[in-house]
Automatic annotation (TrEMBL):
Keywords: Kinase, Membrane, Transferase, Transmembrane, Transmembrane helix, Two-component regulatory system. It comes from the Bacteria. GO terms for molecular function: protein histidine kinase activity. It is an enzyme of class 2 (transferase). It catalyses: ATP + protein L-histidine = ADP + protein N-phospho-L-histidine. CDD domains: HATPase_UhpB-NarQ-NarX-like. GO terms for biological process: phosphorelay signal transduction system. Its EC number is 2.7.13.3. The chain crosses the membrane at residues 384-405. The keyword 4Fe-4S does not apply. The lineage of its organism: Bacteria, Pseudomonadati, Bacteroidota, Flavobacteriia, Flavobacteriales. Residues 530-616 form the Histidine kinase domain. This is histidine kinase. SUPFAM superfamilies: ATPase domain of HSP90 chaperone/DNA topoisomerase II/histidine kinase (SSF55874), TPR-like (SSF48452).
Amino acid sequence: MNIKILILLVVIFSFFTRGITQTTFEKDSLKIINNAAQLLTNNPKVESEDSLNNLLLKDVAITRQSKDLAQFYLARHYYITQKLEKALNITNQNIEDNYEVNYSDAKFYNLKGAIHTSRKEYDIGIRSFLKAVNAYQKQNNELREHTIYNNIANIYLALGDYEQAYHYSEKCFSKFKNRKDHPNYLGFLGILIICENNLDLMKEAKQHIDLGLSLLDSTNNIQGKVLINFSAAEWNFLNGNLHQAIPFVRKSLTISEKYRLKQFQIMSEILLMDIHNELKEYSIALNYGKNAERNLKYFNNSSMEHAIADGLSVAYANTDQHRSAYTYLNKADSLKTIDRNEKNKRNIDSLLVQFEYLTNKNTILSQEATIAKQNSKIQQRTNLLIVGGFSLVLVVLSGVSLFIYNRQKIRLERNRREVELVKSVSETEEIERSKISSMLHDGLAAELTALKLELEMHQDISKKTFEMLNKAHQMTRRISHNLSPFMLSEKGLVEAVTYMVHNNNVNNNLHFYTNVKQVLPLKPKVETILYRSIQELVQNALKHAQATEITVQIMKNNNELVISIEDDGIGMDTSIVNNSIGLGSVKKRIELINGVFDIDSSPNQGTQIFINLKLN
């Protein structure tokens, strides 16, 4: 107990120390943020870096921290006003020269990533963002770290790499999913939904859309409202719900127009153009397309330009304005870097605007000032609550940890028992098979051989009797070998399966192929399970498939073993696999050795069964 109290006192001391030492700088940082907002609002005619820097440091105590923050907001000012070269120079200088690497580098690398992204230097942008992530990790600042992942997701969206975009977007949202009051929550959620839409994760996207729509009335996040409405419209469009998509995209357009978010406005107009083209309302599509084209003059964005030209060519062609249609079709074809089959990829270029730095210049700056003031008040209140809160957290964490531990223990014990049961059943079956095989081979087969020799001494025995006796003898040997495959232990899986196939090929419709020329590096139990599984599947095909051809293959591909059993028979309903004693047992045994069991079949279409196993 004394140790816990000591730890708690150290935490409290560190908390209060940080609060006392940062109080002065927090006040100065608020002044710098307000000065930056006034720079954008008033748009002074001062252009030199020194003059702008002095304006940012007005009424601020000159310290290394305040100078560093002023440099950041100066670079940011140039970035927002699209003086990218100046912004990049200041950013690079501060990354090289700043005095507090772990803290300052993070925000400057983040801004550097945004600058390179605006210049479509995506590879440098991603590297810069990842360096910012690394710096925030050193600070244990997980919220800012995961915010950067959203920036990276935006780049991959622009490149059309939806899997990578989803990876980073989901990584970002996983940190914020329980922080619905965070200013950027809906923005992060909107990006994730767009990724899910383009990866055909429609069920997950719908769940997230419903969540976003339920929060729209309680948020002031403008770009979040735009993204949620846009992603809901896109989801309906992709699912063919054209009329349901229109109200959402119109809402997105209305908000974008109200707050002068031109790139989001163009995105919405392009989607409306595509929707009305699909509805064959070509005159309406023309209006939205032309509006998007007029708004595009503010940006140099070839992705959006291609989308607009493509949509307008369709609308003009269907309103008998063939000359204009031809012009826009040529224009769309000239933009060869754009994939015309991925319309959303073209529209998403605009999302490379940084959520932390751009979108609504004055709104974002004022939001930061408000957030900083709120943080200052929250910090003072937290000082009074931290002792009780920390103790409560310890109690809750202890309870949760104990609950998780017990649940994991129960689950592991259940899995262990199930594995032991399957192993025990398999071993018992092998023992019984071996006993029965021995009895057949040494008992019945020997007796049949003796009977044959005895009958051969009598001349009056018919030839048919000998044939029946030979057939019974061969059947006994085949059953004995199937029950206990002696070749499996002597020559390995491939030779044993070869013999088994040959031994059961009584109708000449059973074929075997392999590219394996050496003994496979498999443990005896693994070999036995694979052999019994193949045997069970072959017997099923022979008995039930009514097939004219059955093919067994064992193929080695690099470090993977692929086994297939295929037939051209009557097929089956694969939904019964888990409830089938035979196939269900085979599936469980394959999973026991970390293999993958897959079946592809339908009535009257034959059956294909695959077993995949890593060789290690």
